[in-house]
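--- STAGE predict ---
source: upstream dedup step, 1 unique chain passed
mode: sequence only
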Amino acid sequence: MKKNKRYKTFFLIVLIISVFGCKENNDFVVTNLTCESLENPLGINTTNPGFSWINKSNRQGALQTAYQILVASNQQLLNEENADCWNSGKIESDSSLFVSYRGKPLASGQFLYWTVRTWDNNGKVTSWSTPAHFSIGLLTENDWRASYIGLTTKAGSRECPQFYKSFNVEDGSVKTILHVNSLGYHEVYLNGEKVGNGILTPAVSQFNKRSLVNTYDLTEKIKEGQNDLILWLGSGWYTKGLPGVINDGPVVKAQLEQLTGNQSKIILKTDSTWKGRISSYSRHGNWRPQQFGGETVNGSMAKNDLILDNTAERSWRPVSLIPVPSHEVSPQMAENNIIADTIKPVSIVALSKDTFLIDMGKNFTGWVEINFPELKKSREIKIEYCDHLDNNGKFVNQLQADYYIAAGEGEETFKNKFNYHAFRYMLISNLNDAPDINSIKAYFIHTGYKMASSFECSDPDLNKIHEMISYTLRCVSLGGYLVDCPHLERLGYGGDGNASTVTAQTMFNLGPLYSNWLQAWADVIRDDGGMPHTAPNPYKAGGGPYWTGFIINASWNSYINYGDSRILEKYYPVMQKWLEYVDKYTVDGLLKRWPDTDYRGWFLGDWAAPEGVDLANPNSVDLVTNCYISVCLDQMEKIAKLLGKTVDSRLYAIKSEKLNQKILDAFYNESEQRLGSGSQIDLIYPMLAGVVPHDQLEEITNTLIENTKIKHQGHLACGLVGIPVMMEWATKSNHPDFVYSMLKKASYPGYLHMLENGATTTWEHWGGERSRIHNCYNGVGQWFYQSVGGIQPMDNKVAYREFIINPQIPKGVTWAKTRKESPYGTITVNWNLSDNHMNMEVGIPVGSKAIFILPENVEEVISNEKTIKTGSSTSIIFKSGSYKVHYSLNQ
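--- STAGE serialize ---
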């Protein structure tokens, strides 16, 4: 009896363990589901998507050990028994980034649902995630039955036409998807209501190579019976005279489909039966540098813009079929632009009886909305915009202007639609009375990515600089790329992009935006391997090798920050082709000036340095450009190795080694212990690129510090290229005080000089010439996170799967709080230094681990009240979880 009782007890214990072992793990949660790095994307560009998610747990050392994904054509089928597209089963893997679809073949136009659950390292399984969805775009020319349509008008590209068609729907509950391929901007209106929150859509592309498709889910807005669809267009970059523009005015093709299971039925497409008309909006300016103009709104027509009846001012008429040349028509793989914030004016000042200056309080990029009191019919109100006032406090004419033509019927409203401005100040003229301050509001616009970081420290000056950098990058990131300035040029310069990529990708989740931008770079390479300085490349623009090699640097950094190796596979041939072009202009082992072309001019080293720094010095230009090529070769060695191209990898390593020796032989002045012209960038870049032998680093560093102190009075003395080069070098060589001392300078040149002269965004030049909303000096932002915050990525462990924690503390800074959203989750490093006692709070996401680099001579480290290090160790490994760390610094 006793023996049987023991067996029963043992069986009961086993049963309890078994039951609890299978119980869902409530401490381990799956969140943040993305498909191709996008949340619930519509119309993706592949039938083999990559799925990603984030695991969250409050347990130290938690890991994912397995996952299971379900994909179904209907949400009701999204369970293990019925998932009709893919049930992966339990896959033993810790992978949670870009897990490839491996189910039944998918096809263009499908709409699908998916969910995932994971197992942790205790064998416990999570609940199924909240279901997500995605749809596949129209991927081939054969998927389209629609034709391109346009409206012939005297105004051509200046017109913002509307296209209209009624259609009937028998069953309004069926999934209804609209695909729109507009050459120029578009908005969609169904039954009088705007569809989606995207604006200034689509993102940019190189029109002679590619146009983009946006997909909309109309299911919730469609109704049984008659429906009315309006496509409202504006030219934007699709302006006569630019590459790929064959029509004087925007054109569009669109296709509306209803989906039942895996079957689709076209219920509407653009063709010759559509009607078109002009709208209340038109555009002036020719969409060239400093000639982007603005919009004119006819108030008499505006009130009927969504009314389908013909009026005295306009009527519907037949559209034209437009024969658009064959090109790549591909789904947009970046978020749409969104209204990110609403901004109210801070003051209105009357300059004369009918002219008023409005201060919005800060610079931004976007739209304005103004409600006018009753106006006299046909009165033309002019609204001008600028990003700063001159030294006399007067409005600076930056050739940005809108016009409103009054209807003369009660209250009237002006609001932008197919153009935008970058400004702080507005000048409203031909208005009888001062506008009410509450009648004006503006809309801050940028691409709809997510913020992915925060930084704050004990020094208010650093906080103000950091905030200015972060805010500026939001102002210049719209349309699926980063522009140099959003008002004067609007060009995706590779130099400005390279200068800010590490900072921008640290601060924001820009994987999709860079995917779109890199596609544009691949589309603009010439047959001989030559690259322009901007992408898209509508016309000739200035720059140098640091600009043209963006395809290598941005691809590599995107991989490091976001973990998608497919981007390297896709663009590796483009990178190789460009480097072959570099070889053509390499003389005796060093790159020399290549010729200007019809799409590219200039040959710069650094750019936009302060007064007194000779950027054009041939020694400096050649040194900087060749150091840059060395960095490119180093990255290509890593890329080739990652892609399994071992012969290529070794070749690039040899070329890099030979180039570095050539640079040292040609530019090192031993007697003066300097390189090139001895400027800051000429001393720093060779050290960063690995040109300077290890035993000579100290002497070159001493020359740099001494020259900065004496020749430049402790100031920054470099430009667009030099700033990020300096920040990367300072972090890797542990010189936080060198950077900090320069950032603390309030006199010219410097960031505090900008701030003390009213800046809210960074400038194009240290003295404020021309643009004051610019992507030129924003590369300093990486220093806040990687040096002061101490969160440093690793080349061989991407997406912060493993990373370094190594705060480098400038003298005078006593605490910092740093957060970084990685693809695996939230990283936090908060430190506080008081009387040589360091207290830290560290958070490491599930799936990641951190290598904590200890300061010299730290003998004991306490973590969560336990001693975890004694003796001579120089680093500690932290697995996922939260830690409170304490140690003392020796004097």
